[in-house]
Design a protein that fits this description.
464 residues; 4 domains
């Protein structure tokens, strides 16, 4: 911490300075009140050790204390008076002037160290209190200027609460579970947690757990030894080792198999990983953030997700609101996406008509922010003027189907990919999953989700 020492006796000043520097603090020493106030005015200090009786006819310690307390920001400073006056009346006067603590001369080295320990704790308490206020002010400033917090966009009450929760969980190293519908921006939230934490200078790595088979996911997460399996031509570290000191984001954790769940639980409990094909564990220091659109509590009851793993990952929980519940954020998102795609496509589209914003704000957005972003990209492809008009909107947005039957465009595309893969694999669902790079567990879940059935798709082979 920054310490201002005001003491006119050279021997005492030297002793105090030596003890303070030995504790790792930065010290500025002054011998009179005027130079002390001048030093404080140039650069505020977190701790002021101030002798009451100072030489000359200028400011004594009490006057310096009162002057500091009358200056802006002085509530962030801890003042300790050094005095030979130990009467109750004198001490009451000092406290009324704004002194936090006092030392009565003569002061021995061991006693000084003890009182410095108390002062250090006091300064740390002040730091924490004002750090929270500074974060809140910075957040309000960001929202007022841009409606942004890192890469997240929105000024709705739901988003402001989310930003505050991100700051809270970022301050600790607990595992975080992010829940929300597909497309709500779970990876952006995970990245914001990382960037708001003490790990921000280190690596952030994201893994979509639904995009791998079980063996590949284990290798991706924990690494493998050369020759551990076919294709393991070299030793390979996993993301837990690669992100040492940083943060790992595991998306769609509800899709991982029981075997990988067991290995992940051990990593979270022991803070160590064992590469596939090895027996010796390796220590890791990473922050783990996970996400899912599943109801994991229901999965636990079904027996598809470990109860003890759920307890381990839900130490801190964030729930993302769907876009339909924060329509006031839609104009901000539209203009942000418009700016992104305009520069990439080099199109002179400058703004969006009020009629378009009204249509977009009243839409239900089952695909959430991801769907809105796709729609804005589509709009720019088709827009020929400088202002987006209603006729530039995709037909499913201009003329939405009834809510019960509406299916977002990306669901149609995903469903078609799955049907095509099954047909390419001759009806073998396991082979189709491999072609799409999905685990069988994820593939089968999406078959049910997208209602891909044998009669409806002309696929009459049984699951194989």
């Amino acid at each position: 911490m920054r310490v201002l020492l005001v003491e006119d006796h050279i021997d005492i000043q030297g002793l105090f300075e030596q003890v303070i520097v030995a504790r790792g603090h930065e010290v500025t020493a002054c011998a009179d009140g005027e130079s002390a106030w001048e030093a404080y005015g140039r650069r505020p200090y977190e701790l002021v050790l101030l002798d009451w009786e100072l030489p000359g006819g200028g400011m004594d310690g009490l006057q310096v204390c009162r002057t500091i307390r009358s200056s802006p920001g002085s509530e962030r400073c801890v003042i300790v008076m050094i005095t030979g006056h130990d009467s109750p009346e004198s001490l009451r006067t000092a406290l009324q002037a704004g002194v936090n603590d006092y030392l009565v001369k003569p002061v021995g080295v061991e006693f000084l160290k003890l009182r410095l320990t108390i002062a250090e704790q006091w300064v740390e308490s002040v730091r924490r209190r004002f750090a929270a206020e500074d974060q809140a002010q910075a957040l309000q400033s960001q929202l007022a200027d841009h409606g942004k917090f890192h890469d997240l966009i929105g000024r709705s009450p739901a988003m402001v609460v989310l930003y505050e929760e991100i700051q809270k969980v970022a301050a600790v190293d607990a595992t975080v579970l992010i829940e929300g519908e597909t497309g709500t921006g779970k990876e952006l939230v995970a990245r914001a947690i990382h960037l708001s934490s003490r790990r921000a200078a280190h690596t952030f790595l994201a893994v979509n757990c639904a995009g791998f088979t079980d063996s590949l996911l284990a290798s991706q997460l924990f690494g493998h030894k050369k020759g551990a399996f076919t294709g393991a031509i070299d030793n390979q570290e996993g993301v837990f080792e690669a992100a040492q000191g940083g943060t790992i984001f595991l998306d769609e954790i509800g899709d991982i198999s029981p075997a990988v769940q067991t290995s992940l639980l051990r990593v979270l409990q022991e803070r160590e990983v064992t590469r596939v094909g090895e027996s010796k564990p390796r220590k890791v220091d990473v922050r783990v953030v996970v996400a899912t659109h599943h109801n994991l509590a229901e999965d636990v009851e079904k027996g598809t997700f470990r109860r003890d793993l759920l307890y381990r990952i839900k130490v801190a929980r964030l729930r993302l609101a769907p876009l339909r519940d924060r329509p006031t954020d839609i104009p901000l998102l539209v203009h942000a996406f418009l700016g992104q795609f305009r520069s990439v496509m080099e199109k002179p589209v400058l703004q969006v008509s009020s009629e378009v914003l009204q249509v977009l704000s009243s839409h239900s957005w089952p695909g959430n922010v991801r769907e809105l972003k796709s729609v804005v990209e589509s709009i720019l492809i088709h827009c020929t003027g400088t202002v987006v008009q209603v006729e530039d909107l995709p037909p499913e947005i201009r003329h939405p189907a009834p809510e019960a039957t509406y299916v977002p465009l990306q669901r149609h595309v995903e469903r078609a990919r799955m049907v095509g893969a099954i047909q390419q694999a001759g009806g073998n669902r396991s082979e189709a999953a491999r072609l799409l790079g999905m685990s069988r567990r994820t593939f089968y879940r999406r078959l049910a989700e997208y209602e891909v059935s044998a009669p409806g798709d002309g696929i009459d082979d049984p699951l194989r």
